[in-house]
Write a structure and sequence with these properties.
Blueprint (H helix, E strand, L loop, with lengths): L20 H12 L5 H5 L5 H26 L7 H9 L1 H31 L5 H8 L2 H19 L3 H32 L19 H7 L2 H4 L16 H30 L10 H12 L5 H36 L14 H15 L8 H33 L15 H20 L12 H24 L21 H25 L1
């Protein structure tokens, strides 16, 4: 479907620089890193670092490299995942990719917000009562919805607000607490504290235990999201250079936070006592008791809750913005194209909020907060990995379908062999994690396995089929007359080629003007 740029949009592509490299790097870290995941890997002791490093090699690094090349390759064309996959395989699969990224984030919200609710529960000084409150389903529902709708209201204010809150919240609620946790672990050991982690245990885990592999497969979602900032590629200056910097800086910080943070948590909590939802706060509380600074636990709890808000805010604004741009190009009904006075996708955010609200009610039917947390986490892994499989395949395919296209950042200076290795490893790793994610972990009481398999298989089928139905029902009048969506390179009709050339010329002129002003 050819899209039209009308009015001033026909000759001008908006490219206002609102985000700096450091801000985008922090947004990447906040989008990817959630300290809530540390307890799941702390169960593995020393071998947890093996899982982190393995997942980084076969998933995080490939995602970062491929996303950097694709984002730099299409610096003035919006759409993120939709653009990248669509340029290779057409708009139908491109729409599936951006749809899954959006739906995955929507389903993910209750899981990360559950961690926020637990954090807030520990602001009291009676930790036995705090722990009981954290396990209460109705309390959790109330806090989940409260934080989520607060993030939605902030998102309605526009990208400026999102960037500021994400940057501050990421520092206060994720990066600083991670650093504090690591420092606590070092001080505790230096003071002669007893370590619950056996530092003499094997670094290589027992991979013959299939249950261990299944639970560890969820680590792939810990690293998901580094490509999400691709929808902001037109909101930073010189994206071909600055976007890769932000991605790689965020990737390095992510690995360090996960490995060191997990070790610090394993030192203070026995593996048999680890709870996926509560153990991070319990770990901080144990350290504070050891140092006789119990008053510090509520401070950490509030900071972590603020970090959850920042992380949710990044995801509320990111994928929904990509879907909004795609929708205005004619792939969603006009209802989803409505924006407020700040240009924010208000109806998409409201529909997303309704979905989060309904999902949160699943607390009532699941046997525990922990089981609800795990089953939704697994569903988000499955949906997101489908999008990643498409992204890796698209990156390889574009090396042949767009041989002469400019690649300011390129994986491998010559030939395509390094792209085959990086993209192939990422594809294989994603496929492995996809298969393993269907198996329920034996370490967690899931209640009925019928519910587990029904949610996973039914959820994947529903959310994969639905975008194809929407795509088949699209109509010509769905195209917003003011859409500035840049045509795809394979749209060979004269009008599309003219608009594509105008958009590129406008982008190059703006970049030249910025470069001149910086001299």
């Amino acid at each position: 479907m050819a899209t039209k740029l009308s009015g001033t949009a026909a000759t001008k592509v908006k490219s206002a620089a609102k985000l700096g490299v450091f801000t985008l790097m922090i947004m990447n870290i906040v989008a990817v890193v959630s300290l809530r995941g540390l307890p799941a890997e702390a169960e593995y002791g020393m071998s947890s670092a093996f899982y982190y490093l393995f997942a980084a090699l076969v998933f995080l690094i490939p995602v970062s490299l491929v996303a950097a090349e694709l984002a730099a390759m299409f610096p003035f064309q919006q759409g993120g995942m939709f653009r990248w996959i669509g340029e290779a395989f057409g708009t139908r699969l491109g729409f599936l990719g951006i749809w899954l990224q959006w739906v995955e984030s929507t389903i993910w919200f209750p899981t990360v917000l559950t961690f926020g609710a637990v954090s807030l529960a520990f602001i009291g000084m009676d930790h036995a009562a705090d722990s009981h409150l954290a396990a209460d389903k109705y309390y959790t529902i109330a806090v989940v919805l409260g934080i989520y709708w607060l993030a939605t209201l902030i998102s309605m204010k526009g990208l400026g607000w999102v960037g500021k809150v994400s940057k501050i919240g990421g520092m206060i609620g994720t990066i600083i607490p991670a650093g504090v946790l690591v420092v606590f672990g070092v001080i505790y050991l230096c003071m002669g504290g007893h370590s619950e982690m056996n530092f003499h245990s094997s670094f290589i885990p027992d991979l013959t235990n299939f249950d261990n592999v299944v639970l560890a497969a969820s680590i792939f979602l810990f690293y998901a999201g580094m490509e999400m900032s691709g929808v902001h590629v037109r909101d930073i200056s010189n994206p071909a250079r600055n976007y890769p910097k932000a991605v790689f800086g965020g990737a390095l910080a992510t690995v360090l936070i996960f490995v060191l943070g997990t070790y610090a948590l394993g030192i203070i909590i026995p593996a048999k006592d680890i709870n996926l939802v509560q153990s991070l706060l319990v770990g901080f509380d144990n350290y504070c008791k050891a140092f006789h600074i119990e008053w510090f636990t509520p401070v950490i709890a509030i900071a972590l809750a603020f970090g959850v808000l920042a992380g949710v805010l990044t995801w509320v604004a990111g994928p929904s913005k990509g879907v909004f741009a795609v929708g205005k190009a004619g792939y969603l009904p006009p209802f989803f194209q409505k924006a407020n006075s700040n240009g924010v996708q208000k109806n998409i955010l409201l529909v997303q909020g309704l979905a989060v609200t309904l999902l949160s009610l699943l607390f009532v039917v699941m046997p525990s907060v922990q089981s609800f947390y795990q089953i939704l986490s697994q569903l988000t892994v499955l949906l997101y990995l489908i999008a990643y499989l498409l992204m890796f395949a698209a990156a390889i395919y574009l090396r042949y379908s767009m041989k002469k296209a400019a690649r300011p950042f390129r994986i491998g200076a010559r030939g395509n062999w390094l792209m085959w290795i990086v993209g192939g490893v990422g594809f294989a790793g994603s496929l492995l994690a996809f298969v393993l994610s269907f198996f329920p972990p034996s370490q967690i009481s899931m209640g009925s396995t019928t519910v587990w398999y029904s949610v996973l298989f039914g959820g994947v089928a529903l959310f994969v089929i639905l975008p194809f139905i929407i795509y088949a029902c699209r109509k010509p009048d769905w195209v917003d007359k003011d859409s500035d969506f840049v045509p795809f390179h394979w749209q060979k009709d004269p009008e599309s080629q003219k608009l594509l050339a105008e958009a590129q010329a406008q982008y190059e002129a703006q970049e030249a003007q910025k470069a001149a002003s910086q001299r």
